[in-house]
Amino acid sequence: MRLNKIMDEYLTSKPEDKCCWFNGEWIKRGNLKALADECTEILRSSGFSEGQRLAVLMPNSPMTLAVILACWRLGGVFCPLNEKTGEISLLKTLDLLKPFAVVLSEGVKGDLESALSKAEWPCVRLNNEKLTGNEKFTGKTQSADDFDKTLAVIFSTSGTTGDPKAVPLTHENILDNINACLEHVKDLKPENSLLNVLPNFHAFGFTIGGILPFVLGATQCLVANFMPPSNVIKAIEESKIDVLLLVPTMLGFAASMLERQGKKLSGIKLVIAGGDKYNIKMDDRVTAVFGVPMIEGYGITECSPVLAVNPSPAVRKLGTVGPALPRFELQLRSEDGELLPIPGEGVLWTRGPSVTSGYYHAPEINKERFIDGWFNTGDYVQIDEDGYIKILDRVTDIIIVGGFNVYPQEVESILDENPAVNMAVVVGMPNDISGEVPKAYVIKQQGAEVTESELVRFCKERLSHYKVPRSIEFVDSLPISATGKILRRVLRQKEREKN
After folding, report:
1. Is the dihedral of CA 355, 361, 367, 369 positive or negative?
2. CA dihedral for 155, 69, 65, 137, sign (positive or negative)
3. In this structure, CATH architecture of domain 398-498
4. pLDDT reported for residue 354
5. pTM of the model
C-alpha cells in the first residue's frame, strides 16, 4: 500500500481533529489536507509526474508534510537534503539524483539558491506554514528510463570517499518498518503524540517522527530546530506530547538544561533514543527529569531505518539496543565474510522487507555491501542468548593496535565511568610502531578537575594495555553533525593532519 493513501485516509477521516502542533498552535487534519491539495495542484500543473524526484531543503513544518504528501500522490520520489552539507556536496548530490526541481524553505541562504540556479537546477521557495500564491515550479526534463514508481524516498549520505551515496526506499520498505516498530513497541498507541524534531533528511526523524504518526493515527509536535534546547522543552510543555524521539546527544542537552532549571517534565510516557552511543551513566539523570526510563534502539538508513529496539522499559537491557524487529533476519560474520555463531560477536548482516535493495546508481558499492540478499551493516556487534544486540563499533571506527582490535566504545565506556568525565570520544592516531594507538577527546564535568595522567591511570586499571589511550586531549566541545552524531572522522582527520 502506498503511504500517501494512509496519509490521506488519516486527514479525511476526522478533518476537525488536531493533526500536528507547530509554532504554538495545533493544526487540524482538514487544514493540512487543504495545504497538501494546493501543493499537489502546483506540482501537477508544473509537469511533475510518476517516478520523478523532488529535492527538498526544508525544516520540519506543516508545509514539509504537505509537500511529501503532494509528491507521493503524484507518484513521485521525495529527496530530503541537508543545507549544511555545503554547496559542493549538495551540487554533487543533485548531479546524482537529477531531480525535477529543488524546493527551498524561506530560511535557506540566498547565496545557496544562487549557486543552485547557476548550476541550472530549478528552485522554488516555500513558506513553512502557508502558500503565498506566487509559487511556481519550472521543472527540469528527466529521462523516463530513470523513473521508479515504487520509490518513496531517497536519503543522501556522504560515502567514505567524500562522494555522495544515496539510499532509495520504497513505500513497502517504509511501511513494513513502521508496522514492525508498532508490533515490537506495544506502548505506542493512537492516543499518543510524538515529538518530531530530528531533521527530515535523517531517516529516524522522517520515518518514525514524521510518517509513523499517520500510520498509527496519532498526532505529532513539529519543531524546526533542536537548538537551543529550550525551544524543544517549551514545545513539549505547550503541546503536552508524551512520546519523545531523540538522539543521545539531544537527550543529554535537554536533561542538562532541565537540571539547571530545576525542572521535571510531566506526562511523558515513552522516551526512545537512537542514532549514536548512549552513555548509560546518564540513565538515572534522564529518568529523573523525564519521569520514565529511556529505551534505546538502533537503525541505519538502509533498513528504513529501525533494525532493533528495546521493546519497553520493563524488559530493556541497559547498554543494548534491544532485539531485532519482526521480519529482520540476522547473521554474524567475520570481516572476511565467514559465518559466525549466535550468540556471539561479529559484523552484523541482515535481510528483510524493510531493507533497501541497493544504493542508488552505485553498482560497485552494491557488490560489496549486498550479497545474496544479505546487507552488510558495517557494524561490529554482540548478540546475546536472548537476541539483544550490543553495538561494539562501526567496523570503520575500529582501531587496530599491533594487530589487536580496539573498539572505541569500550574505551569510551570506561572513561565515562570516571566522575570527572562528562563525555569521551576515542579515535585512532597514527603510530609508526603499532600502526595506530587510541587517543581520547574528553569534555570534563562542570567544575571537575582531573589530569591526563589520572585518566590514563584510571584506564590502565580497567583495560588491557593496548586499549589504554596514549594521549588525552581536554576539549570544550566536539564536532557534532546536524543529527547529533559525534563526527569521529573530523577528529581522525585532525590527527592525520598533525602527522
Report:
1. negative
2. positive
3. 2-Layer Sandwich (3.30)
4. 98
5. 0.86
